[in-house]
């Protein structure tokens, strides 16, 4: 090794397994390079996760509730129930739901219908279609 790669002082002390106790400049640079490559690898993964969360879908109602209506409290009720709304003809994306939670209405719905759908979405539980998407939206970034 070159003298400039050695830390100040004559010969770095070694540990019992023969590894230098004080890392050389070259070793420190190699460790830094590993850290940078790890960061560059993780950031695209976070970006990909954010994109997939915004594109995930939440059906209202899910497959098990097909044909039922949704009352203003978000409960599934029999079709034709007074004051209840038919299910959405298409699932909503995570981005649409996130915007609706911030005050906008869900696309293609009235204010009251959107509020009923959001109440339904809030009541989703593990195992129901759209639950994972809803849980992902709730995660802080």
Instruction: Give the oligomeric state of the chains in this entry, treating copies of one chain as homo and distinct chains as hetero.
Output: single chain
Structure classification: mainly alpha
Average pLDDT metric: 79
C-alpha geometry: elongated
Q: What value does the Rg take, in angstroms?
A: 27 Å
Portion in beta strands: 5-15%
List the total number of helices: 4
Termini separation comes to 45 Å
How many strands, which pairing sense, and closed or not: the largest β-sheet? 3 strands, antiparallel
Domain unit count: 2
Number of strands: 5
What are the low-pLDDT stretches, counting only 5+ consecutive residues below 50? Answer: 45-49
Along the chain, the helix and strand elements come as: HEEEEEHHH
- Spatial arrangement of strands, main beta sheet: 3-2-4
Helix content: 40-55%
Task: Note down, in words, how this protein is organized.
The protein is mainly α and 141 residues long. It folds into 2 domains: 3-53, no CATH class; 57-138, no CATH class. The chain contains 4 helices and 5 strands, in the order αβββββααα. It has helices at residues 25-55, 94-101, 111-122, 131-138, and strands at residues 57-58, 69-70, 76-77, 85-86, 92-93. A hairpin with a 5-residue loop joins strand 2 (69-70) and strand 3. Helix 2 packs across helix 4. The radius of gyration is 27 Å and the shape is elongated. Residues 45-49 have low confidence and may be disordered.
